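User: quick one
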Amino acid sequence: MSTLATNKIGTLAGTADISLPKTRPSSTLNAKLDPSGSLTFTADTATVNFFAAEDSGKVGMVLVDSQSLNASGLSTQFTTPDVSQWKQYYGINVGVFNAPEATKTNYLFPGNVRYYIYEGSFVNMGNGESNVKYGDLDRNASNLYTTASPQSMLQSYIYGPSGYNSSNGSGGQNNSGTVYYNYPSKTIGYSGGTGQATISQFRIIQKAARNAAYSTSGVHSKMPNGDNNAYAPNRGCYQWRTRQNSTTTASNFNSYGYPGSAFEPGGISFGIDSATEGNRYAYFNVQCYAVIKPTTVVAV
Amino acid sequence: MTVRTDKIQALTGSAPLTLPSSLPSSSKNVQVSTSGVLSTPNVANSLNNLTNAGNSGYVLLDHQEIDENQNYVHLKMDGTDYTATDIYAFEIWMDGILITNGGRGSVYPVMISPMNGDTSIALGQSGGQYYAGEAFQRGEDSYWMTGGGSYTQYNDSTLRDASGNGIGYEMLWQQVAIGSNFQNSSYSKSFSDDPYYGGNMHGSDGAGFYGTMRYFNGFCGRGWDPDLDGIYPYESTSSSGGMYNYQTYFGASHTQQSSYPSNMQNAADGFLIGTDSADRNFQGNFMLFGIPKATT
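Assistant: Done. Structure below.
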């Protein structure tokens, strides 16, 4: 016959004893032991912020950050390089720096992220057209590009139908492919016009590479820049790559727009260079996901 | 409080309970082993699909990171929980680079075929049976959702399969290649503290092709969907063009016969991404999501 080894209770964590529940649960529940020695019966909850592959069981996609603003809009100030100068922006920073420490340690550690996806929307509650832009951040929410000198990047964009100022939305498209020198702040589309409550939606991919493999791209849908109720919404696609004739050497990364060994892309700042305009971009919301190297699940 | 030792004795038989030697750092479930050891182990909660009322939503079916040259990428359902006909829609998430054994800067085709096992089931391989088409939204040549279609869209068989044999495909784009077989480097090196490679990798080819696409599955009624981003390839060595912002493809069945051909009698269980030459290779990060049919 066994005996209850009550002497072992006193050895738990030095001075703490197990504190048993005073009542039985009404249904079968798991017992839980906490750091103070309390044994309780509770329903299980598990928060999982990633997708693992069905076949390998390894983690592939992780929820990094989720933010939403109220009617006050983009009001937080920060400074970012823009067209050869440092400029005040009003907006939010989204990225790995806002992820829980355990998530960063287990899955989003340096060198493990392949690309980030940002999905969001906002509404322009004001009166007038303006541009919401995004800039590239590193893992510490600092500007990925530390100089305000023009960066040489390739930009290509297309949006349509070009008749978004036409009553029927027809007319083809507009496009451009060119060398783009004002890299740090990239437009994800103007929104608004003379009417109020015009919405925009976007999806951006930011590759986390530190050499010429760095690239960002985005699609967005937005209401037209006019208040004619017959105007069609339009959709734009943008892509930015490091300069075509740059090579991945240590000497030219800054002038050709790729991050370099010391800087790993890890976030994006969404903002607008006017406090007044920022305030009218209400209910801005964005979710950030990371696709990572297949990584073993960590028990916690 | 009275400890009812008789209950414990009945529980364990001959073995006494052995308590943990330390308390957990946070609240954790208590487990009892067959030998009577009471513990609070760490638990690795995981998630490979969304579930509601017994029905699965998104499932991450396959995830491959390829860090050495491969002539093709075959995303497929390796797991045991689903078969091809369970999956009503797929999503492919890609971040790939194209590599050639020559110098960088040349443009080569990249193709995708839906697969059933190791067999291509691409539409567009013969005429008069079904319609296939494509649509583009791309910057270089100013297309906005324009394209073309025919009963025999992509009716050649130049995509190399795992054995090097030519098979059909449903989607094609051009991509600038990294040169010299990417020697002394790899996909993962771009994310490391030592990311430099040199003259055989530039911005146009280094970022490769990336993006997301959706594919509706089925025997005869299947095809690509333009809802997601599409693919961002780079099809030029020019600095003023070459970026196809978006490329997508529509496929739809249209039969004029009483029976469907063999490639319309099976659903897809994967996709083969490849090229038309043994001299080209791929590296990158590739994911295959599925949306299964409801079972309740």
